[in-house]
Amino acid sequence: MVRILVTGGAGFIGSNFVRYFLSRHPDGFVVNLDKLTYAGNLENLADLEKDPRHEFLQGDICDAGLVKGLAARVEAIINFAAESHVDRSILDASSFLATNIDGTRVLLEASRQHKVHRFIQISTDEVYGSLSAGAFHEASPLAPSSPYAASKAAADLFVRAYHHTYGVPGIITRCTNNYGPYQFPEKLIPLFISNALEHKPLPLYGDGLQLRDWIHVEDHCAAIDRVLHGGRPGETYNVGARNERRNLDLARALLKILGRPDSLIQLVTDRPGHDRRYAIDPTKIERELGWRPRVSWEEGMHQTVQWYLGHRDWLDRVRSGAYRTYYRAMYEERDDTLSNLTSASSVEPNRERV
Ligand code: NAD
Ligand code: DAU
Question: In the prediction, which pLDDT does 343 show?
């Protein structure tokens, strides 16, 4: 599969994947469709600007006419395009329904009409919900907690339905928390790095003891490439690094690398409905496709911090404009913003410092 349509390829994982794919497949060709929402950024693709194997198009995956024309030109579609931030979905879920659910349906419909050889849906471990012990496997029930996770679960069900009903060769990947270069600084790691660089507080939600399994974005890209070339249609593959970290420990580790004091950590009002722990079992992709994560946590964290240190201009630009408005509402006016939500009544504020 060499001619592919990547959607959301100007975002964090999509841009890393386009770079990964073209570097591994010299005869590859990528059509990259991205709406360039607040999270999409052509600077993430600047080094590919002159590469004749990469064609960028600004557009919406919900635009059926546009998507149909593009599907006719490729062998496979990999759908990264999404509204991806849990906090934003709690404030307003409407764009999550449009892009994550209906956009996926539009792509599936075009795949059906043009008999695309593979449709890869980039899903998330969040569709399984939270669990206190053990790990979810691919057949575990879906129990999404946030509006974001619910929209991703709905999209997964559409992929399943299009495979079952029309034979669309869809495959779902469900990955854990990614980190690495080009991640938008609304997400934990780049947000904490950029705040620490400016000696600003690191806002840790609730008690900070939530657990996430962190994987370097390049390992995720390698897994997707394996699935594209060897995955079985109709199947789902969990992608995780068995690298569980408590948010508090992660914050301390980042501060240590940056030479900043732990006193920058500030506990703030929790995210409504915050999932305590995500954990998935990646045995299936390891056994079937021989994939293994390669980047160690220590190496990956150091590399990532170095990348943000070396890209202060990138960081400054993405944190200007609309980001400031978002940051003010989400952090500086956090209690007002959350108390405007009906679900906020169940949230217990915790103002102690760590
Ligand atoms: P991101 O927010 O950085 O990028 C999303 C991209 O999609 C942006 O470039 C945006 O402009 C584009 N986009 C949004 N709506 C669009 C639309 N209607 N049409 C076309 N393009 C549109 O997200 P990310 O972190 O790179 O995540 C990529 C995918 O991976 C998402 O589907 C997400 O659910 C999934 N995922 C993310 C993680 C993670 O840790 N970040 C983990 C597992 C799965
Ligand atoms: O698990 C995969 C998912 O990981 C992806 O599907 C999502 O697209 C991606 O955004 C990510 O979701 P999370 O909600 O886990 O990521 P986030 O970076 O927003 O938060 C990570 C943890 O850190 C979570 O427990 C909430 C906490 N957090 C986050 C922010 C932004 C804080 O304590 N403070 C913060 O300011």
Answer: 52
